[in-house]
Design brief:
It is a single chain. The chain has 127 residues and is α/β, with parallel strands linked by helices. The protein has two helices and eight strands, in the order βαββββαβββ. The protein has a four-stranded mixed β-sheet with strand order 1-4-3-2. Helix 1 runs antiparallel to helix 2. The protein starts with a strand and ends with a strand.
């Protein structure tokens, strides 16, 4: 259903360092990075789509959106916890500690944070 998600960032080097640390916790591999453009993308090693991309917004406007959130699927609850801890260790601000969210469904386990650019992200497991 989704081809790719693009997250706008103003400081590419700082954002790249953040996501380069976070993505392996979710089993995602770097597909490309072009600091001259600047943009980078990650994917599951066994699938060309969807892609998760970061970069400068095309129109040069403010990078972080308000009222939007990208949720990244984690393979386990332990991966949610590792991803959240990694995000915080690399400059994220906590928007919700790892835990069950039964208001979504009985097995929903998620954590929420904002990256160094202010983009809101969720890491979740449905198992």
């Amino acid at each position: 259903m989704i081809s790719h998600v693009f997250i706008g960032v103003a400081n590419f080097a700082r954002a790249f360092d953040f996501y380069a640390a976070l993505m392996p916790e979710l089993g995602l591999a770097l597909k490309f990075s072009d600091p001259a453009k600047p943009w980078a993308g990650w994917m599951k090693p066994d699938s060309p789509r969807p892609l998760f991309l970061i970069g400068h917004p095309f129109a040069g406007q403010h990078a972080a959106g308000n009222g939007q959130m990208t949720a990244l699927l984690a393979p386990s609850r332990a991966a949610v916890e590792r991803a959240h801890a990694t995000a915080l260790a690399h400059g994220a601000s906590c928007e919700g500690a790892p835990g069950l969210r039964p208001e979504y469904h009985a097995r929903y386990y998620g954590a929420y944070f904002r990256d160094s650019e202010g983009n809101k992200l969720c890491v979740c497991c449905h198992e």
